[in-house]
């Protein structure tokens, strides 16, 4: 647990938080890659499912915009996810000339969610040790971090 004395400088604490965030991100990426490989997906494939679960069905163009990847790469990821049953392409209800990529929540819950269960349980255990005020601070920090990352 990150606990500091009153003598800790803001700069020291900020530096330590940055280093721990870098370590957390690296560990999450590595675990995600290992889990993706277990189900036959590439390193970035499951991140597309996270985007779809977060934003709902998206067009391939929207996925390109969210990821910064080329349209050809996005098509390849969608093809792999569709072949594994994790997404479907459906006509866009707003424009029948387009398709939207929709996550298959059943396949995700059956085949991927169990592989992430240990991570979820560890996180729940850590969060259970925090006060409501600490949880509010953590939630605000993460929200600001995500918002800043997309700017």
Automatic annotation (TrEMBL):
Coiled coil: none annotated. SUPFAM superfamilies: Winged helix' DNA-binding domain. It comes from the Bacteria. InterPro entries: HTH_MarR-typ (IPR000835), MarR/SlyA-like (IPR039422), WH-like_DNA-bd_sf (IPR036388), WH_DNA-bd_sf (IPR036390). Pfam families: MarR. Residues 10-147 form the HTH marR-type domain. This is MarR family transcriptional regulator. It comes from Kribbella karoonensis. The lineage of its organism: Bacteria, Bacillati, Actinomycetota, Actinomycetes, Propionibacteriales.
């Amino acid at each position: 647990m990150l606990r500091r004395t009153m003598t800790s400088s803001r700069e020291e604490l900020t530096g330590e938080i940055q280093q721990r965030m870098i370590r957390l991100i690296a560990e999450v990426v590595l675990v995600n890659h290992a889990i993706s490989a277990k189900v036959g997906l590439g390193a970035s494939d499951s991140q597309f499912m996270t985007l779809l679960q977060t934003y709902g069905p998206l067009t391939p163009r929207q996925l390109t915009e969210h990821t910064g990847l080329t349209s050809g790469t996005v098509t390849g990821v969608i093809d792999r996810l569709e072949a594994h049953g994790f997404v479907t392409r459906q006509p866009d209800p707003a424009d029948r000339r387009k398709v939207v990529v929709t996550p298959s929540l059943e396949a995700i819950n059956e085949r991927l969610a169990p592989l992430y269960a240990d991570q979820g349980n560890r996180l729940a255990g850590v969060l259970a040790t925090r006060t409501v005020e600490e949880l509010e601070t953590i939630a605000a920090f993460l929200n600001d971090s995500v918002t800043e990352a997309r700017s």
